Amino acid sequence: MAQNIVDRRDQPTPLCAQCGKVLPPDGPSPDFCNESCQQWWYAKRSDKKAA
Question: Which of 6, 10, 14, 49 could form a disulfide with 23 if both were Cys (CB 3.0 to 4.6 A apart)?
Answer without folding.
Answer: 14
